[in-house]
Amino acid sequence: MQYLKEWDGVVVKGKQVGRKLGVPTANIPYVPGETNIADGVYVADLVLLDQGNRVVNGVLNQGDHPTVPGGLPTIEIHLFDFDEELYGQRVRVRFLHFIRPELTFETKEDMRIAMIEDIRIAREWFVNHQNKS
Question: Which of 4, 115, 15, 120 has its CA nearest to residue 74?
């Protein structure tokens, strides 16, 4: 499978906004410009380097989270059907498909609704691209 970009990092604790909205994310810090890919929402997967390179599918936002400002820019990846602790673990994020640019929402509820749609789009992308290279 072709990747738009791969990025290695360590999962850190975020502001827990996604978790409170029912869409938990693993947060990986980055320096703007270093990932060499535009901020926005992507279909992605996560390679768990400390767990034998196990791969988990998901959807991510890379950016400075303008709806809930504060803190450093992060790659925030929601992993499908996943409920494990990842803090401090080494991971590789693989950007697979661009969905949309990062947006500022009027409310956290508007953001949650958009996140649910992003998840639907990403899940559909994986179904349509499963086992294709």
Answer: 15
